[in-house]
Design brief:
The chain is mainly α and 169 residues long. The protein has one domain. The longest helix has 27 residues. About 3% of the residues have low confidence.
Length: 169
């Protein structure tokens, strides 16, 4: 990336304050932005509503910033990671509040689907523009959400000790 590009506030936003600038696996590092948001919301009243509002705001921001970023840096540049943030927030939405184990499992599950891109994720990715960049990760997040729901129902006895962690306990 050119030094001049690093002075562009839009680049800092789409890289989730620089996480997407990691020299290897920028999408994986970018997903940590979603982990940080979910972690920061623990203990906030109306957790799920705030998570939804933030996910929608990040989606709309990413969609709006796609044209100017792609005009300078080409189609779907690797440092653009707001889509990973939104996808992760969709994956983790079931836990209110999320435990450290749920945050970690959500990270692994989301990254699995984001990297593998089972149908129809790859098709959605080809939409182009902001929706193409953002929606493929939303679909990966929906897949991840489904797996996380199945895990929670498959191991119901773990809710109290492992899944439903609360700060200060």
């Amino acid at each position: 990336m050119q030094p001049k590009a690093l002075r562009d506030w839009r680049v800092w936003l789409v890289t989730c304050l620089g996480l997407g600038m990691a020299p290897v696996a920028p999408g994986t590092f970018g997903t940590l932005g979603g982990v940080a948001i979910a972690w920061a919301l623990i203990g906030v009243q109306h957790y799920l509503a705030w998570l939804g509002v933030i996910a929608l705001a990040v989606y709309l921001l990413g969609r709006a910033l796609t044209p100017p970023i792609e005009a300078v840096h080409g189609k779907d540049p690797g440092f653009f990671v707001l889509d990973e943030v939104v996808g992760y927030l969709v994956t983790i939405a079931w836990w209110i509040p999320p435990s450290p184990l749920a945050l970690g499992m959500g990270f692994v599950v989301f990254r699995f689907f984001d990297i593998l891109k089972p149908p129809p994720i790859r098709r959605v990715e080809h939409l182009g523009g902001g929706d193409g960049i953002m929606l493929d990760d939303v679909v990966a997040g929906i897949y991840g959400f489904g797996v996380m729901c199945c895990l929670r129902y498959a191991f119901p006895g773990t809710d109290v000790n492992l899944w439903a962690w609360k700060p200060g306990t």
